[in-house]
Amino acid sequence: MTPTRRTVLGAFAASTLPVASALPATASPGERSEAGRAATTGTGRLSNLGHLDFLRSWVTPPRTAGHTTFGEGPLGVLWTYADRQPDGSYKRIGGGTYDPATNTYGQGAYNADDIGRATVVYIRHWKQFGAASSRDAAHGLLRGLTFLQSTNGNVVLWMQPDGTLNPSADPVELPDPSDSGPSYWLARTVWALGEGYAAFRNTDRAFAGFLRERLELAIAALDRQVLVNYGKYNVVDGRRLPAWLIVNGADATAEAVLGLSAYVAAGGSPRARTALARFAEGIADMAAGTTRTWPFRALMPWAESISDWHAWAAQMPTALAAASAALNNRRLLDPAVGDTAGFTPLLLTAGGPDNGWLPVPIDRTQIAYGVDARLQALLAVNRPGPKQVAAFVAAWYFGANRAGTPMYDPATGRTYDGVSGDGVVNRNSGAESTIHGQLSMLALDAHPEVARLTGTPTYNGLRTVEAETATGGQVVTPPSAWTGESQWSNGAYLSLSTTATWTLPPAQQPRLVLPVVNLVDTAPPRTSWTTGSRALGTITHVCGPQGISAAPGALQPLTLPHLLPAGATELTATASGTAQLDALLLLPTISSLRIANAVLLVSVDTQPRTVSLPGRVAYSYTAYGELYAHGSPARTVVPPGGFTVVLG
Fold first, then answer.
1. Paired strand residues for 309
2. Nearest-angstrom CA–CA distance, 310 and 362
3. What is the pLDDT of residues 317-372, one digit of tens each?
4. Cα 400 to chain centroid, rounded
5. Tens-place pLDDT, residues 533-582
6. Distance from C-alpha of 608 to C-alpha of 628, rounded to nearest angstrom
7. What does the DSSP assignment read for 48-106?
8. 97-128 per-residue burial string, b: 16 or more CB within 10 A, e: under 16
9. Does the predicted model carry a pTM greater than 0.70?
10. Is the link from the previous residue into 588 a cis peptide, with omega within 30 of 0?
11. Are 459 and 421 in contact (CB under 8 A)?
């Protein structure tokens, strides 16, 4: 389980790593073993639910006021973490400090976030392959999930090993108590209930009717607590951002939209349709940037910052594609295409699906939750270009990552918990990683046309030069690298009131230069940039009103008007006023990612560029993911703002 942004935003890499406890866990009666499931999946499929089955369990909770479910008998639940043991086996554990005297955790053994998302895996597996075992698993988990729902429509996050609910966890997660307001886990409950209703309505009408009642209860809570603000906007450092997103997050809202889309497509209520349309509108409002300005057409996840993009939970384009289909509204697809055909290719050439651009790519950790979000989106927009890019994302699971090792094991169904920026693999395999690994494998099984790429990746894309490496200016180390809405790269910045010069790594082609500066709304400084005798432009470090932003000012990459010429290795900035410079981002006009004999080329040029590469065939796509040209890679045109895929 990834903790919420509010509790760990300053410590991203740690957000997916559990603290191990000493509780031994045994499989409950009726639960499949990993080996049993693996032995039955000799079908050539990538999907293997063995490890997810291992995490699944059953519990009979004590009677709890305000909490009921469908039918009688034990409820399906899911252990949160699985720690790898010295002998290579795995131990299931919960979250928080374990107390062996009471057999309880500071948080709990099972949580609504992972139960809800695991339900989606089993539903999709059942629908895709007709597996009765997956139908039964989904049924049990939906019963467990709905027991966590309170009469106010909100959801308790944590449950102890004996089924006792723990509304107030240690460490604290907001809201506290966890069913006192809207939350990520309410959004993920809506996701599971929506897909659950759509799946069961033709096979178990009584159960589907129960799921519909509980989904409508959740929608009522969202209406009362979130959509009451529909049409209102918050000011965030001068930008108007929607005030009707769940926990002010397009990320959380996107997961609810996935469930609402499934429900509406299956004949859901008029209220659900209205909620879906309004939430989708809010997500679409989070699109930002252009092909040459940060964040390069990405859908931003957090409506309290214009400087923070993270990969985990970034399912916004997938959600908009689903809502577009359910509502028959093609306009909702446009920002999803911008994200998948614009931002994602640049993310890949910069080093792959990193966890956090804040706004500099600081958190280089890569986890399945972020990888799966990119993969699902590329397939969901149903454009030929993004579908080819999907192969480069999927390759992360098969070894094309900084560790150079597979992150998914099809023999067991395990997905490891992540790889650090310096290539160290966390070989634990908790619920979240397992869930999103399986969602990816199910998507790839459903799209066999997506190429299977393996090999060591080679990146030539966005590069960071720390501002503190300049000659000139004064290095300042603030008390905290985290500002409340963004993060200083390398924990420091350059204060500049005169002139500073940087020595840059050479490049064989022109590059965009994006100084990352702290924008201010009072007496904003200006900086003028040159290389040799050539002027690259002047920028004003001005910020709009702070509004609800957690800190005054905003860290923003600003694109200089003119390109840094090929071969240039020196850059000079002259300040008028006192400027705060965090870093320089250097982006080649044509960036690239190579995996074995496959190459992805991404353009930020304003004109078509012709390149020559070895290979069998090349496909060029516009900035909107549509086919531009195909033919021999010996003379390939990369369209402006578009991308090209070369296959060997």
1. 357
2. 10
3. 999 999 999 999 999 999 999 999 999 999 999 999 999 999 999 999 999 999 99
4. 19
5. 999 999 999 999 999 999 999 999 999 999 999 999 999 999 999 999 99
6. 11
7. --HHHHHHEEEE-PPPBTTB--SSSSPEEEEBSEEEEPTTS-EEEE-BS-EETTTTEES
8. ebeeeeebbbbbbbbbbbbbbbbbbbbbbbbe
9. yes
10. no
11. no
Check whether 44 has a pLDDT greater than 80. yes
| Residue given tokens 């689903």 in the structure block | 322
Best CA proximity match to 297, nearest among 240, 352, 337, 249 = 337
Helix pair angle (368-380, 384-394), 10° resolution? 160
Give me the count of residues in the chain.
648
Q: What is the pLDDT of residue 442?
A: 98
Dihedral sign for Cα 485, 489, 491, 494, please: negative
Please report, rounded to a whole number, the percentage of residues in the chain having pLDDT higher than 90. Answer: 92
Beta carbons within 8 Å of 608's beta carbon, 6+ residues apart: 637, 638, 639, 640
Tell me the helix, strand and coil percentages in the chain, rounded to 5.
35, 25, 40
Distances from the Cα of 32 to the Cαs of 114, 175, 238, in angstroms?
19, 35, 54
**d(Cα 15, Cα 111) in Å, to the nearest integer?**
16
The dihedral formed by the CA atoms of 224, 226, 227 and 231, expressed in degrees to the nearest 10: 140
Assigned token pair, 602: 């991404």
DSSP string, 15-27: GG-PPP------P
Give the 3-state secondary structure of residue 107.
coil
Alpha helices in 428-567 (DSSP H): 431-446
pLDDT at 51 over 90: yes
Instruction: Determine the residue type at 330.
Output: R
CA distance 132 to 46: 19
Report yes or no: 616 and 642 within 8 Å, Cβ to Cβ.
no
DSSP state letters, 229-272: GTT-EEEETTEEEES-SGGGBHHHHHHHHHHHHHHHHTT--HHH
For residue 534, give Cα distances in angstroms to 223, 436, 472, 528.
Answer: 56, 49, 20, 11
Res. 40: pLDDT tops 50: no
Show the CA angle centred on residue 98, arms to residues 365 and 155, nearest 5°: 75
